[in-house]
Amino acid sequence: MTTVTKTKKKPAPKLTVRQQIDAFNQMAETFHANSAKKGFWDKTPDLESRIAVIPEKLMLIVSEAAEALEDYRNPHVNHDPVAFTSLDYDLGGKPVGFASELADIIIRTAELAAALKINLGKAVMDKHAYNKTRGRMHGDKKI
User: Is residue 48 part of a domain?
Assistant: First the structure.
């Protein structure tokens, strides 16, 4: 009789905060490089001109949030938990759906930060560290 021994997978090594920041910033640089390659920064070669288009870039982020809301409101989704956690693709292989729209928000935000030379990784980690110190439901806001 043959015995099969199952081996446990070793957990991935935990990244240090510095490594998390660096990884986040590398992703942001990758997103920005792709956006620049596709021509979306051709008219803004320097930091001063990039600062001038911040309102436009922020509204593009808002438009991605609106697309996520529209996907949420889609009657065929019926608020099925799987619909919000699955990665869906259209017939051409394009990622679609709620998760895809959330990804677009992150991509647009990160690539804007990279274009502006903002250390977004550090900003995110610092903000997260601060948020951990805040009280439950801080701010007493309705939503």
Answer: yes
pLDDT tens by residue, 27-66: 999 999 999 999 999 999 999 999 999 999 999 999 999 9
User: What number of other Cβ atoms are within 10 A of residue 48's Cβ?
Assistant: 8
Are the beta carbons of 109 and 102 closer than 8 angstroms?
Answer: no
Is 5 among the domain residues? no
Q: pLDDT tens digits, residue range 111-143?
A: 999 999 999 999 999 999 999 999 888 888 777
CA distance 72 to 64: 12
| Domain region containing 51 | 17-128
**Alpha-helical segments (H) within the chain:** 17-37, 47-52, 54-73, 81-85, 98-115, 120-132
State how many domains the chain has: 1
Assigned domain for 24 exists: yes
pTM for this one?
0.84
Q: Is residue 55 part of a domain?
A: yes
Cα gap 26→121, rounded to integer Å: 9
